[in-house]
Structures
1.
Amino acid sequence: MRVEIHADRCIGSGVCVLLAPEVFDQRDDDGVVVLLDEHPDARHHESAHDAATRCPALVIEIHDEG
Amino acid sequence: MTAVSEHQAGALPPLPLPGEQKCPFGPPPEYEDLRAGQPVIRVSCPTGVDAWLVSRYADVRQVLGDPELFSNRAGVAAHILLGFGGGTDVPVSEGEFPRMDGAEHLRFRRHMAPEVSNIKRINQLRPLVQGIVDRQLDALAATTQPVDLYADFARPVTTAVIAELLDVPEADQPLFKRAAESLSAGGSSATDVAAALQPLFEYLYMTVVTRRAAPGEDVISRMIVRSDQTDQPFTDMELVTMAAALLIAGYDTTASLISHGVLALLEHPQELERLREDPSLAGTATEELVRYLGVGGGLLREVTQDTEIAGQPVKAGDYVVVAVQSANRDGALYADGDRLDVGRTSGAHLGFGHGPHQCVGQQLARLELTTVLATLPRRIPSLRLAVPFDEIRFKVNSSVLGPVAVPVAWDEIVPALESGA
């Protein structure tokens, strides 16, 4: 799995950090997403997918690589 | 549907609204047929706005997720409320970010985010909220039953949280209460709302001026200090508007969600029992109640260019109401969407909305409801309604739906866990 973010659209909702704190963080000054792990471990795939689906601003794109 | 029966001038069917006994937790029964056969239809709304009503999950998600095609400019509740601004076409006032789109709106969201939606910050607030909930339950133990779960528990809790965050004294609460009530009531005219908001805005303006001179650690001070460090500092009026939004939303919306949510659990005793036995379900229970109850009146958008929704052509300038509650019960999201299940773990419900305007206070609301749901069933295992369910009255003609009052009683309130437990 490869995770890509489009932070220019990010509203800092915190939804991704709530769901997948191992994969995402937020900047302190504006709440915007920080990608911690571009290739998360398999045990975080489900939560990363969940974050992509539930991100209100559709910032997260997941590329499944086999 | 008394809320809409007064508005039958046009030939269009009225917007179905929840809030009465026959659908106390929404959505109105009409939506099942609408989703099946008429997923996009013209309706007439209580304020006289005619709109396309969108009821399926996929279509609601499409509209909310595409702010370039579906603008917020008209105001999200202008189909239900005449009050704020006085209509769908009045100019956006200074700092009125809920009606802004694109980069203009993003600037406000990113300024509030560190205070209300940074998860590290929210986690730091957990002990504060737990303490407030426990103290309010201690206070209930010392009062005469029955008590109103809304006025005597939910609102004191949410008020204390927001008062602590913004550092506004308890003595000033009547000002906030009047503004919040006037803003959410469908009967308020623009003049009523202005009369209720003006003293609040004057109060917050003085607060901004005072705290700019001597900033503290509260949310308003921190927003002022961060603003002055940016390339495009916020005006005093913009800061006042952000503070007012947090205050008003924090005051009533979350309190209504708590009392509506606990009432729903009292009517689903097996689900309440699951929570009592396993408080670690409080997180999923919170999501489930927001899905089940959220945004009963729907959200308004304005079409920016000719397009289609589910094959139905819509024109630039048309209004669209997305029926969030209906979408959240759509079989496309959950086969058993009408069932309340506090253990649900997956799925993107739309109870806080979707898209860039999704509820700005959602993480704070989650924290408060989760704390209540992990605490209340454990500390008051015998909690019950003090009146028959059919005597509970529900708000109609309001942007914040839920029970007017929830009279409750109990046998015993057990002590709080030691802090840190």
Note: Chain A has one domain: 2-63.
2.
Amino acid sequence: MTRPRALLFAWVLAFACERGHGPTTRAPATAPVPNTAAALHARAQQLATITVLDLDGAVLGRCRDEVVAQVREALVAGDVLEGLAAGPPPWDVRLRLQLHEGTTFVARLASDATVRLCPGEHDPKPSQTHDRAHDGSASHLDAGDPALSDCTAAAAATRGHELAIPPALFDEVARIVGRPPRREYQLAPGATNSPFGPEVR
Amino acid sequence: MSEHAVVTVVDETGAAITPTAVKLVAGATTHAFADVPPQGLSLDLASAAAGSWQLVLELPDHPPLPFSVQIAGSGAKSIAFAGDSPRCCALASASVTDGSSGTRKLFTFAFTLTKKHTELVMLAGWDYHGGSDNTLYAKTWRDDLYAGETWQTGKKTSLTKRIGDATVVTIFDFKSGNRVRYIKGKRDWHVMDKLLQGSVPTHTAGGETTAALQQRHDDDSISIVHAYRYVQDLGVAAAGSLQRFDIFSHAWVGGPIMIDTWQAPDYDAGGAREAERDPGDKDGRSKDFSSTNMTRRGDFKKAFAADAVAKMWGCQATTDNRALVRAAAGAKDKDAPLSVSYGGKTYSVTAKQIAAAMTKNILPDTYMKQLAKTVGITMYGAPPGMGASLRAVGARNYMFVDQSVYKLEYAWYKSAIGLTPDETGYFPYAP
């Protein structure tokens, strides 16, 4: 073999070997998507499903498509809020918001009008993360993520992580949870007077 | 050589104010000052043991004004303010000699106060869910009202200065159970006194278990009634002195939630004694201002200055109220029937009827409206259906109602009822 042909052969061989290593192309490493209101807001148009979980990660129910559509619209139109809800969350539940391409966010109801996303909050069931990976979808969060942060107590660390939600989501969670809301959201217990006057029955 | 504490008082014009009494008080022990020529109103410190004392000034048209002082020394005594010295007093010491009495060391407290007493009362509820210290919101507001500037909207704006060097700021802390009185200090704030309200601190353990709720109800601990009584006494001692009455707490349609007590069934809605305050209840209620529950309404009203303002900074996030507003706001035809749920029942009402219900029944039943009517001043509070949010600007902490969250609701209130919020999202509930 002549020297130029040897060099060409060596180059072709090297190229072939390179291409022989799987995966066939090296996909650029994608940075994990942070579990923040800003990140969700930037991807809100992709919102596909909302699942309601209890604090142990058990699935309580899934929001209907028409509710998800309203939430998608509200998130796209809205913006990241600065404040924290002064009132308590109405129920101790979490929301898993999943996008079409598989990325998931975990949020808490902060009030009847807002949800809060805490940086570092991980999916409540890491095993499900791996299961979803087999499905072809994938969580952006790994099982080894930091432990759950307590958004309520760490107020100063979690400002700027809330998004406004439409009443439809609050009502949908109430339907799924099947429990009455906390005191701050209720009329006086036992109150029977109609505010509309006697002409309305 | 003997040591004496001497007190002089002038008002803002420099005119002398003659105290009706000046005392050193520690627990059950009291030493009264006397007029001793030529040094004036004074006390020989030989009679007072070393330790913490209150120097109490009793002036015309003022409540008793305690200042925290410390006496040191076992032989030769000295006296000084405890903690941050108040700006309203210059303390100087000097030795004087006269033939008969020998040498005396005089510690002269030269107070510059105001002819008319001024005070603010703030209530900081216990954050039973979130663990926040609501006194931080009260203290931020106190600091802003002294400085004449605020960051309550997130940006620096000017604010009417309601606190001067001689203004007393009283904070009821419902988490600890203490009432603490402050006056402006040279560096920060002088703590005039701190007093536990009731006989035990607030029971903060146990969450919302039945046992914990019952203990909070049954304990002789801080209650909003303590704050009402304080204001009533102020009305007697210094009519027209109260500049502001602010409540930083959780709240609901029924009123401010100070430590989250529930009324016993008899006193609850539908109970036989529904109109009366439950003696074990520590929270505020709309019914507090009736003649049944506030026998000293006159004194309560007298305390407030003519241009006084009150504000409840917590939520009014009742779901049914918000749903009503949104139903009315979304109605294209204001006379077309809408199906709405309220209090567990379904009604067929028009948007016009919802507006009428809000104007005639819902708004008037609020705690804010009831206080406003009783005192004859405006009380600000969240609009029915809206929750409050928290904002931090550096070390400053504020509560506010986020107008970007409730755009639809605010627009309806403006067009249907003519109500617009202040810069922090709260409605004025006028008397």
Note: Helices of chain B lie at 135-147, 210-218, 224-237, 297-303, 319-330, 351-362, 367-375, 407-417.
3.
Amino acid sequence: MTAKLLVYILVMAGVTYLVRMLPLMVFRRKIRSRYVQSFLYYVPYAVLGAMTIPAVFYATGSVISASVGLAAAFVLAFFGKSLIVVALSASAAAFAAELIIGAVK
Amino acid sequence: MDRAKSRGFLGGLKDSIPIALGYLSVSFGFGIMAVSNGLSVFAAVLISMTNLTSAGQVAGLTVIASDGGLIEMAIAQLVINLRYSLMSLSLSQKLDSKFTWLSRLGVSFGITDEIFAVASGKSEEVSKQYMAGLISLPWVGWAAGTLLGGAAGEILPEKLKAALGIAIYGMFVAIFVPAARKAIGVLTVVAIAVGGACCMRYIPVFSGISEGFRIIICTVIAAAAGAFFFPVKHDEEGGGEK
């Protein structure tokens, strides 16, 4: 492991810890602003959306198999399947697509 | 007696089993992703042991893989993990009077969406023993899953590894799609974030902006628009990844 990587990890862990620790140590009052509360409520969904699309299309090495996997994930997630079922089905669908593409070639 | 037990370390452990199992599988996806981005298994596990958060770690990995700057890394973690501040704030009212500043320092390391949800769902105040139990098993699961995923990523055949690389995105989809189906606000936020991320990726004007900053910009714009147009009610605070 290089020193640069270690510094990256140190910054990651340090900032993440401070974000969790400071409010618990310093503040004893609740955030009252409805706007701030709403903003923080929406952050996880915004992050996950921005990180998933379009990056997912380049996750398997072929846009076609990635699209098949993503489609499977969308359908199963829409019908409320659990995290692990959705994730493994996306992988299985992408894998099947890879095999079919390989066979056609 | 039973009541006292359910509030102690063992009670925390018991309540944390479902969380730990979930973490084991999510971090498996992270382990594979880290190794396929060129990190060692050791580095991947070190990240998981020191961060204990999914979205932040994937974003961090993106910054590392694209050789981004340290300021970029710090801002990305700050924005993505800012929601933990709200949870910390809320949890600070829930801790019993025996909490010392040292135990507060310890507990704050382990605040995640799921652990926060379970702790704040307790009807009474929580003890430091209970919190220690609630945090330790998911932490072990998170590290172990990363180790297994990283190791699998090194030995599995290329095609299978590629297919498993999509697993962590599948989990992200499993979090935001059901939420977007239920609430127009979440749907709007996700649509704006995805639209923004696509614009930044495919429109040449934005090509100078690094990966990490793209995530930051899209997140802030989408969440701010959501908060402005669809403010949530107070009882929904602290929701998020499940």
Note: The longest helix of chain B spans residues 9-36.
